[in-house]
Design goal:
Elements (H helix, E strand, L loop, with lengths): L11 E4 H7 L5 E6 L2 H17 L3 E6 L1 H13 L4 H6 L3 E5 H5 L3 E2 L2 E2 L1 H15 L6 E5 L1 H7 L3 H18 L2 E7 L8 H8 L4 E3 L8 E6 L2
Parallel strand pairs: 2-8, 2-9, 3-4, 3-7, 7-8
Antiparallel strand pairs: 1-10, 5-6, 9-10
Length: 211
């Protein structure tokens, strides 16, 4: 991340629970990660800390990542079946969710807002705080739909400003070609914070704020 052409603060580190507990309701966070294990450590902290603190958590991810996350959350003795039934945990498959609002390889804003906004509204019942993770952007990026990816990032940005929830997105670094710093720059500019995607203790988060 050192070569990203953004005006950012220096790297800071924080305890995972503190970082996710203090994240602003309208923070839009991105991680460009080195491998799945680093990413899943972050996702587990994001989801697990939220569920344990009483937040509602919406996870839109690939099936492999959903399966791995659910296994990790169950190892924390979280009753996912009950959390799903009481609409505090929403595990959704990314490709299936994309099919609800993509039209000719382009995200339809009205369909997106109607579908995703309804999920966020359900998650806020009881005045619960909501944190959402979206991997749909990474799926579109992997398909070479770069314009659609940036459009979806901005649609997410508009929605979380309206609904007041924290949002986390992630991309694998190997999805960016050699020298693709401009692409990373464009992605990161759609966010408020960058999480480091390299190896760190699972109890810590390293991040930068975008100015």
């Amino acid at each position: 991340m050192d070569k990203i052409k953004l005006q950012v603060n220096e790297w800071k580190n924080s305890n995972v629970q503190v970082f996710w507990g203090e994240i602003a309701p309208c923070d839009h966070v991105v991680q460009i990660y080195e491998n799945d294990n680093f990413f899943l450590n972050t996702l587990e902290g994001f989801a697990g800390c939220g569920l344990l603190s009483g937040d509602s958590v919406v996870i839109i991810a690939t099936q492999n990542h959903l399966d791995s996350l659910n296994q990790r959350l169950r190892s924390q003795n979280l009753d996912l079946d009950t959390l799903i039934k009481t609409e505090r945990y929403f595990p959704l498959e990314a490709t299936e969710t994309l099919s609800k609002f993509m039209v000719n390889n382009w995200p339809d804003e009205k369909l997106f807002e109607n579908y995703v906004s309804a999920i966020i509204t359900r998650a806020t019942k009881g005045n619960r705080k909501v944190r959402a993770f979206g991997e749909m952007v990474a799926v579109l990026w992997a398909q070479g739909l770069n314009g659609a990816t940036l459009r979806l990032e901005h649609m997410w940005h508009n929605l979380y400003n309206k609904k007041k929830f924290s949002l986390y997105c992630a991309y694998p670094r190997n999805g960016f070609t050699q020298g693709a710093h401009d692409s990373m720059d464009a992605i990161c500019k759609a966010h408020t914070k960058i999480i480091d995607g390299q190896s760190h203790p699972s109890t810590e988060i390293y991040y930068k704020s975008i100015l």
